[in-house]
Write a structure and sequence with these properties.
- This protein is α+β, with helices and mostly antiparallel strands.
- The chain has two domains: about 1-80 and about 225-260, no CATH class; about 90-220, no CATH class.
- It has two helices and 21 strands.
- The strands form ten sheets. A three-stranded antiparallel sheet has the order 13-14-15, with no helix packed on it.
- α1 (about 1-25) runs antiparallel to α2.
- The longest helix is centred in the last third of the chain and has 34 residues, at about 225-260.
- The protein starts with a helix and ends with a helix.
């Protein structure tokens, strides 16, 4: 019964973390480029009371044995990089990725971060930046007198200066991908950093080498499905209640034992 108390406690801790994760998913249901997290569980060590295959009598073996588990634990919260729905904004500097890939930005410390959020802006120098003000890498500058900006599906950025003339190329949005995107470190601010688990960033061109195409005037919506998350929230709540009931039952059994005189 003492074992049941601790076993059920591990279940309650796991369900609490699941609720925390679902809450974060729901809180970011309107965050551009947000990718939901998925919790993975595994069972803990088993107490082997009788080993399967133990000889019960000469020529006879116990077929299943006797093993008692110690509960469960959360092993990971992995990001799920499924495609989010495109949202039409009509903004010339908004770009959605249709398929695999990330944009890269330069951080103040000289390192790089990666994002699926293509809601770009211009800073005071005319450089293309993200919502946090980090410059897109490689850098792209838009002339102050540009009257039109065109971003192709391959990431080429062309501008029109004045009411007449031809479009001039000012750079290209470079795409990046990882062997294991789920291994990226989430920094907040719609940014990720590469880790040993994610592998090194692989650079390429949008629409080529398996990378997604770009859509100007759109943003990629969150891939969080409210109905699925709410169902998961209900299941987590019920699992939490059942584990707490197991603790209460164990406590009542201990009280009964203590009451025996």
């Amino acid at each position: 019964m003492f074992k049941a108390l601790f076993t059920s406690a591990t279940g309650m801790k796991g369900q609490q973390l699941l609720v925390d994760t679902i809450s974060n998913n729901l809180a970011n249901i309107n965050t551009s480029g947000f990718k939901k997290s998925q919790v993975a569980f595994e069972d803990l060590l088993y107490e082997m009371l009788v080993t399967p295959g133990t000889e019960a009598a000469e020529g006879f073996e116990i077929p299943t044995g006797l093993q008692v588990g110690s509960g469960s634990k959360v092993t990971s919260t992995a990001k799920v990089f499924t495609q989010g729905a495109p949202i039409n904004t009509g903004n010339q500097l908004d770009v959605a990725i249709q398929g695999k890939g990330f944009f890269r930005v330069s951080l103040p410390d000289g390192t790089y971060a990666y994002t699926r959020d293509g809601g770009f802006k211009l800073n005071s120098s005319g450089q293309l930046v993200n919502n946090e003000g980090y410059v897109i890498s490689p850098g792209i500058s838009i002339p102050t007198d540009a009257t039109d900006v065109s971003i192709g599906i391959d990431g080429n950025v062309n501008v029109l200066v004045g009411s007449e003339g031809t479009m001039t190329n000012v750079g290209q949005l470079e795409m990046h991908d990882f062997i294991n995107p789920a291994g990226l470190k989430a920094m907040g601010g719609n940014l990720y950093q590469e880790t040993i688990a994610s592998g090194t960033a692989i650079s390429g061109t949008a629409g080529a080498d398996g990378l997604g195409e770009l859509m100007q005037g759109f943003l990629e919506g969150s891939n969080v499905d409210a109905v699925t998350e709410l169902v998961g929230l209900i299941l987590a709540q019920r699992a939490y209640e059942i584990n707490s009931r197991a603790i209460r039952t164990s406590d009542e059994m201990l009280s009964t034992i203590n009451g025996i005189t």
